[in-house]
Amino acid sequence: MLLRDILYKTSLEAVSGPTDIAVAKIEFDSRLVAQDDVFVAIKGTVSDGHAFIGKAIAQGAKAIVCETLPEEIAEGVTYVEVKSASAALAYMASNYYGNPSEQLKLVGITGTNGKTTIATLLYQLFMNAGFKAGLLSTVKIMVDKTEYKATHTTPDSLTINKYLRMMVDAGADYCFMEVSSHGIHQNRTEGLQFAGGIFTNLSHDHLDYHSTFAEYRDVKKSFFDHLPRQAFALVNVDDKNGLVMLQNTIAKKLTYGLKTYADYKAQILENQLSGLLLKINNEEVWVKLIGTFNAYNLLAIYGAAVNLGLEDREVLRLMSELESVSGRFQFIVSETNVTAIVDYAHTPDALENVLNTIENIRTRNEKLITIVGCGGDRDKTKRPVMAHIASSMSDQAIFTSDNPRSEAPEDIIEDMEKGVEPQNYKKTVAVVDRRQAIKIACQLARPNDIILIAGKGHETYQEIKGVKYDFDDMETVKEILGQLNK
């Protein structure tokens, strides 16, 4: 492919050398550069790609895209200076793969909580409706019925476009994609044509990356600011930031909510462990999902599906068939009638939502035991808040390791314990080893009691000192309860 075609729509500052040259592929990792590639030098959070320009050329790079031209210019190499290398990479990736986002209906879901559930269930719904669809999520990537492993909530631009191209080639009509604040901020979604955007909510998260909550909000908002006129922007109007997302968008403005007047409104008629009975825009539907937070997720799914052309009642019928997402309020009931719930809740807001959901479906005759930890090398300010929520809303709270990463798990738990109020001291305990924490909870539980294991959800590993060890909350609690039942 010619370099000039790959650079289409890219904002150029200066060019040195010919652009009518054929290049093999695009790389932003110098270690992967081969003969006749174009290397894009990106300033990352850990390293700066500009430091590896020489290495890329030595490995055969024919063209360099960078924000600052190197002092030494190699002969026979084309240099392209751009204002933002990450934005340039996004447009280049789209062009290289033939702009696949323009050939299907791509819907992006952003917000603190609910992204994975909404994206996954929309994929499930459209597949059940007989369409071919794709999914880009935290949990997995789906190209029609073929599954691929996910590594990031929003992958890099090359990976996104590679999978979108695969979806188009597989005959997919739709793709549902989680859009993280990191992904937006790092321009990974630039150059993509979205048919719709969904905003779920905004709460305390990622303040280790975004310096302030306002910056975090504004990054999310920029996604909607760039939606095209023919797209829809569907936001949760019950969240105070919902209408903020719509302020500057030229897309079709739509709202959903349970409490406020909205285009798509729901009322919870029944909320049980077996499911929800909802009234959506005056039509009743029984769904297998649980909790108020899922009522919001289902409203977003309903609004998106209708705006993508499905008939209202057909959407309700398809919603009644939806199955819960891995690690999102997944539960089992043991032979001794102990209910164990595994949920990805790793923010204060998500944890409070899950505990409120349990509160609404329990009888108060049973004990609620919550196991929770906080990730290492991440926003420390949410640690005491999460401990406060767990200890005040549970009969017993066990603080344990999540993914401690490079931090000592004891230090993370110590940070958490600062949020526990004196009246709740006696019902908290620290157990550093996560498996041991789950075992103790299972030993403490009596018939009809509820165990909530929060924080890791679908994850099948624990990251400790740079090493990922196999660990699955659901498999662990199943195994331990099974042993205790014998």
Find the count of extended strands (DSSP E, 2+ residues): 24
Distance between the termini: 64 Å
Structural class by secondary-structure content: alpha/beta
Largest sheet: 11 strands, mixed
Any idea what the shape is? globular
Percentage of helical residues? Answer: 25-40%
Taking all Cα atoms into account, the compactness measure Rg is 24 Å
Strand order of the largest sheet: 9-8-7-10-6-11-12-13-14-15-16
Strand percentage, roughly?
A: 15-25%
* Distinct helical segment count: 15
**Uncertain runs with pLDDT below 50, 5 residues or more?**
none
The overall pLDDT average reads 94
Describe the structure.
With 486 residues, the protein is α/β, with parallel strands linked by helices. The protein is 32% helix and 23% strand. Helix 3 runs parallel beside helix 5 and helix 4 (115-128) crosses helix 9 (292-307). The protein has 15 helices and 24 strands. The strands form four sheets. It has an eleven-stranded mixed β-sheet, sandwiched between helices. A six-stranded mixed β-sheet has the order 17-18-22-19-20-21, sandwiched between helices. It has a five-stranded mixed β-sheet with strand order 1-5-4-3-2.
